[in-house]
Amino acid sequence: MNLKEQLKAAVISLKDNDSNFEPLALEIFQYQSDKNPIYKAFLENLGVDRTKVNRLEKIPCLPISFFKSHDVITDNVEIQHTFESSGTTGSINSKHHIADLPFYEFLSLKSFEKLYGPIIDYHILALLPNYLERDSSSLVYMVKGFIYNSFSQDSGFYLDEIGKLIYQLKNLLENSKRKILLLGVTFALLDLAEGEYPLSFLEKYKDRLIIMETGGMKGRRKELLREEVHAILKEGLHSDSIHSEYGMTELLSQAYSTGEGFFSSSPSMRVLLREVNDPFTYMPSFGVGKPTTTRKTGGINVIDLANIDSCSFIETQDLGSYSLDYKQFKVLGRFDNSDVRGCNLMAL
Question: Residue 90: what are its φ and ψ, rounded to 5°?
């Protein structure tokens, strides 16, 4: 087993709040700082001596914009597939080159099942209109894998067929014992909740129906706070809580929220918050710095150990805060002048 295979095996074996996360992150940092030309050049321009990086918070994070301007690849891998962000008209899209699709498929399913249980217990109805128009969406690829592994012939994708979706949803709730995962891009779920079709039947089955928004207005609607979106969806879809998925083209790991907007990361992912005006200084967090009872807003840096073949250390343009116990995070919006993205974000 070569080094890369050893690292991937170690990532797969990670558990929640694993003490091995930091030493594994440092090992992956040493590997990528040597084998990833873009990341290596980035560190050299910062004057970073990689041999002196010995703590998680000392690892510099690559600005996410590099995925637009460069091929971020470690160790000259053979590319199997390329995920591409949706972006907006006239924008430059991010590209994430994938060298090990089975590795991604395994981890994404493991992440979901850790929180929600076996995928075979679900029918999956995916309302992802703008994503389905592209064959390079990481979200569509992930959901296709979920549907395949659910062994449900009643699962499927829906473009703009709201009536057909509602018919199938009602049929499955009334005639199947499986739980239903209704997963959709935010603007499409809002269209469903505020549409002309009667949805009062959902009230009876809300214990078996999980409604999950994946973010994204894509210029179709006015940007809203997540709390506003969830209030509309709760009322229109007769649900007590709205779940969320936090992921993006440049990441292979995901985080999920079961309500109230606080996300729990998968074992292969950790979120650190940097000071808004100093990208190289971290705010206090669980295990980093001196804890504080004051909830502050910071820029989100993601350590995604699944990104072994690209870069595991990403400085996003998202703004977030921690829960009071520092074990979860909330996405609050985006830095000014950053691109509107298709992931789970609402404007401040």
Answer: 85, -5
**What's the full length of the chain, in residues?**
348
Distance CA 189, CA 233 (A): 7
Which domains are delineated in the chain?
3-80+268-334 (no CATH), 102-257 (3.40.50.980)
Q: What is the DSSP string of 198-228?
A: --GGGGGGTTTEEEEE----TTSS----HHH
Distance from C-alpha of 41 to C-alpha of 233, rounded to nearest angstrom: 46
Beta bridge mates, 269: 304
pTM to 2 decimals? 0.91
Residue/partner pairs of 19-23 with CB below 8 Å, 24 or more apart: 21/56, 21/267, 21/270, 21/305, 22/55, 22/56
DSSP for 302-339, please give it.
Answer: EEETT-TTS-SEEEEEEEEEE-TTSSSEEEEEE-TTPP
Query: Mean pLDDT across the chain, nearest whole number?
Result: 90
| Among the listed residues 228, 204, 206, 202, the one whose alpha carbon sits nearest the alpha carbon of residue 217 | 228
* Residue 134 reports pLDDT greater than 80: no
How would you label 92-102 residue by residue, b for 16+ Cβ within 10 Å and e otherwise? ebbbbbbbbee
Instruction: Find the Cα–Cα–Cα–Cα dihedral 231, 233, 239, 245, rounded to 10°.
Output: -100
Which tokens hold the place of 102? 């089975």
Of the candidates 53, 40, 48, 83, the residue with the CA atom closest to the CA atom of residue 306? 83
Residue written as tokens 């210029």? 219
pLDDT per residue as tens digits for the range 21-43 = 999 999 999 999 999 999 999 99
Q: CA–CA separation, 226 vs 220, rounded Å?
A: 16
